[in-house]
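Marked as duplicate of an earlier ticket. Keeping the data here for the record.
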Amino acid sequence: MKRIFLPTPSPSHWQRVLADPVKHWKPGFSAMTEAACWENEADRLPSGIAKLLESSQEPQLTGLRLLAAFPEWAVELPGGDTPSCTDVLALAANEHGLVVIGVEAKVDEPFGPTLGEKRATGTSSGQLQRIGYLHGVLGLTGLLKDDVRYQLLHRTASALLTARDFHASVAVMLVHSYSTKTPPSGRADYENFCSAVHADPSSPISRVPDFRHPMLYLGWSTGEAGFRDTVLPSMPCPTDDMSCVMRDSR
């Protein structure tokens, strides 16, 4: 897995790193919406994310400047061949140190299967090994309930593992929601996950207890709904560009 990155010439270049560049690159869905949002800011955190972090009033999360952002950041996990791919992995910093922010973008897409569904189908695929590993990363002494969404578990673990790799002082896993429904799509699943790991589900951003190096936060940020209407062109897929090969990294 390469760790060499180039700046994006345009928002459409995000398409090439998607797990399925054809299926996932559509107006009104999270991949295109998130690309439009981040590229609109260029050298800063999206305004909704910045406001969320500022609202925490935590010294480690205020006044952050964006250092770099990586679409489809992949983290290798044991128990399978496919990595966990975070929609956007941002490195930000202030005078207190480095912060890793793992962003899961959603319009109205679901969070995918529950842990119960994964457990029921994972006996021969290494899935149970991966689930056990993720529990260990988060320091969970008991098993999470079957109704917890698996995606939230491995995205949180990925943010934490990446923060450790970069020796960051803080890891944040946040949902960047463009849903206009009331309540927003997926909000109940997010709150259920917060409760499961002892974070405050009622707070826009909440610290997960017992994490010190790095500290761990969970957050829910509301994105600007106007980006849902953005229509970005598709990029041609060079035959020698393996990042365009359709694959399932989820």
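See parent ticket for discussion. Residues 11-226 form one domain.
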